[in-house]
Amino acid sequence: MNRAYLDKLFTVVLAGVLAGLALAAAALPAALVFGLGVKNLMPYTALPEALKTPQPAQRSNLYANDGRTLITSFYVEDRVDVPVGEVAPVMRDAIVAAEDVRFYEHHGVDVRGVARAFTANRREGTRQGASTLTMQYVRNALAGDPRLTEEQRAAATEITVGRKIREMRYALTLERQIGKDEILGRYLNIAYFGAGAYGIAAASKRYFSTTPERLTLAQAALLAGLVRSPADDPINGDADAARQRRAYVLDRMVETGRVSAADAEAAKATELALKPNTTPNDCAAVPADHNDWGFFCDWFTQWWNAQPAFGENVDERQRTLRRGGWKIVSSLDPDVQAKASEQVREIYPETIARAAPTAVVQPGTGRVLAMAVNRTYGTTANPDGQQNYPNTVNQLVAGGGGITGYQAGSTFKLFALLAALESGLPLDTEFDAPRVYVTQYPVGAGPASCGGRWCPANANTYWMDGDRDMWDAFGRSVNTYFAWLTERVGADRVVEMAQRLGIVFRAPADARMAREGAKSWGPFTLGVSATTPLDLAGAYAAVAAEGTWCRPTPVTSITDPGGRTVPAGNTDCRQVLDTEVARAAADASRCPVGDQSMYRRCDGGTAEELAPGLRRPVAGKTGSSERNATETVVAFTPQLSVATIAANPDDPRDAVGGGVQKRQIAAVGRILAWSLRDEPVRDFVPPGQAVAFQHTSPRTGN
């Protein structure tokens, strides 16, 4: 047994005994010492994961799609780790002087410090713990590791002899396995500096709006002093006490030879010169001049809460978000978001009950570039009688949290069109559409009931009635044509098509009908089910992407604190339509918005003014629910899909009227034009002759 090993063994045994004395302020009975045995005072042979690969709670940051623009942060402890090499040497010296002047001399347990604490405790009745910086790190790491249970974390700070001895044994083992500088860096990243700042990076920002590598002597001494007494932080606590702690640290630095007396005196005379800087926390803390980001942020949290990769339930997933130190690059494009918010307020101001929630989605990825609505995101009280305006945190764009959505009218004809094409019917399928068409589908009493059968009517007899094909019927939005088409292919296939393209039935009655009564749900084709702009933009984006549907996502990438990309941030895309079917649907969708199909078969549309202003190939659809209760516009290019719905979220009986659709068309056109101004002009791929003009067997392959 060599001399070094004997020294360490003596250190452990003596430290274990004296630690108990220091804690209990009385000598441990000899029987206890011998009862523990030398084995139980030896360093551990292995370290727990909390000490081998520490995971202290760190804040997660949510950025815009440029990876630099901060939307907000999420945390229970404002902390972000930095390498020790990025901490100013003066800060490292200050923390050692303040907390453990013999840090570079002991092996994890300072026998002199333990003896000094024991003497002071016996003589003065104080409670000095004699913890080294390494021991403090062990305690904090175990107490803050999110992988441990609440009981395990609590045990790391209990006032017992057993805990103190475990702490010492871990400290000795830790110092055998990693270097002093690494331990110091870990300590600096885990320590609490008061004012909600955990770790040196957060503290540098919180007090001085700077980074750890730029800290001055006066700043470093102040921060080092706060570790022992974080309640004295000069922002919320006692500035004089903070100055006294700073002076104490400077004096200790002089004693250890780290700074000269003259420099220390100069630092003592320096004003605190605080520049407080708070880190935003949660969606309510998005930048004030970008309040509209709050709705996107809110939907991001909904998305995160639904990801099993981050925990078994919502509570676990939220803990993972707020403690995991993730860098989340979102899909939000601040430029597109700004234009969408501007244009939404051209549809409706934020001071009225009616809303115009709008979503912008990227085909082929599902990334959501913008979510806009004419509301202020926040919980500020509204005037009497105004439930959700001008302020709300309700998810009016994406649904959820009690928001089931809005009827989108004839935009749902897309799903009948796709189901018919998939069944083998071509685009030139003709039907002599009457003013009223009596179907086989049973309905209750109402204006669209003929003897208990659903019998929709065309909105404009002169313009809609007569011999129509899919191009013409979709362009002019001929209700009776699509009622007939739905009968031919089956209402259940139309419902299934909508679900396949991401339409979620959030209203219980809609979900029940889709599950139990889809075969008889003929009116579904005319958009009687509630939906959201986000679902609708995503469905039309699948057509733009030639049949590839991507689950709408708020993220571009997610990386952990080690810089590793996690799969949960990947896109979730799948081919849900035969490519030719999707191309044919896109071709027909050019008719409503004033564009021309590849086969020159468009003859009139409900939003013909859209295409000329955009000056690039575009497709889309409009929709009006019964009595114009809601109005909807969807438009897409191969690169972008935009959907907006005008509705009163609080009162479905408040019909918005058909006049608003003109403003919606203009707004959608401007959003597309602005967002694509620097993008190349791309055309849709034309469908083949077969899907355009020939009856075939079902087109379900690709």
Automatic annotation (TrEMBL):
Enzymatic reactions: Preferential cleavage: (Ac)2-L-Lys-D-Ala-|-D-Ala. Also transpeptidation of peptidyl-alanyl moieties that are N-acyl substituents of D-alanine; [GlcNAc-(1->4)-Mur2Ac(oyl-L-Ala-gamma-D-Glu-L-Lys-D-Ala-D-Ala)](n)-di-trans,octa-cis-undecaprenyl diphosphate + beta-D-GlcNAc-(1->4)-Mur2Ac(oyl-L-Ala-gamma-D-Glu-L-Lys-D-Ala-D-Ala)-di-trans,octa-cis-undecaprenyl diphosphate = [GlcNAc-(1->4)-Mur2Ac(oyl-L-Ala-gamma-D-Glu-L-Lys-D-Ala-D-Ala)](n+1)-di-trans,octa-cis-undecaprenyl diphosphate + di-trans,octa-cis-undecaprenyl diphosphate + H(+)
Entry annotated with the keyword Hydrolase: yes
Domain spans labelled Glycosyl transferase family: 71-253
Residues in Penicillin-binding protein transpeptidase domain copies: 359-653
InterPro entries membership: Beta-lactam/transpept-like, Glyco_trans_51, Glycosyltr_51/Transpeptidase, Lysozyme-like_dom_sf, PBP_transglycosylase, PCN-bd_Tpept
Keyword entries, A-Z: Carboxypeptidase, Glycosyltransferase, Hydrolase, Multifunctional enzyme, Protease, Transferase
Protein name, as recorded: Penicillin-binding protein
Species for this entry: Micromonospora aurantiaca
